[in-house]
Amino acid sequence: SSGINAEYGGELDEEKSLLREKHEKEVNHLELELNKRKDKVVKDQEELLSELQEEFREQKEAIQEDHEQQLAFVRDRNKSELSILQLEKKDADEDLKNVIARVQSRKAAHEAELKQLDDQERELKERENALNERKRKMELSQKEFEASTSLKMTAELLELQNQIKL
């Protein structure tokens, strides 16, 4: 019976050994497959990451380009508005200069007119004074004439009275 056991034991050992070898081959094969799959997943993730980075870079560039275009548009619009405002200011400054010139011209004309009126008033007063002086002199000379005439007449009357008495 121990021979049978030895024979079965040898067969069992051989089967165990074959099973162990088969199991190791399967484990090695599964590890190899697992490593291949891991490598593929890593490679796929790297490709996906690279694609996402590229997409992000493109979107970032598009956003920057759009931002630069908007900025250029705003700058151009501001330049246009500034040019318009500068033209309007220039026109307003010109209008103001013209108004000031007109006001100064009118002021000068009014001042000249006032001076002319003052001169005329002064001249009229001088003429009035001269006329008053002439009138006074005439009245005075008339009074003197009347007085002298009255004296002459009185003297002549006295003379006539004296002659009549004689």
User: Structural class of the helices, strands and pairings?
Assistant: mainly alpha
The rounded distance between the terminal residues' Cα atoms is 235 Å
Low-confidence parts: none
How many strands, which pairing sense, and closed or not: the largest β-sheet?
none
Mean pLDDT: 92
Instruction: Tell me the overall shape.
Output: rod-shaped
Query: β content, as a range?
Result: under 5%
For the secondary structure, the number of strands is 0
The portion of residues assigned to helices is over 70%
Order of helices and strands: H
Radius of gyration: 69 Å
- How many H/I helical runs? 1
Walk me through what this model shows.
This protein has 166 residues and is mainly alpha-helical. 99% of the residues lie in helices and 0% in strands. The chain is built from 1 helix and no strands. It has one helix spanning 2-165.
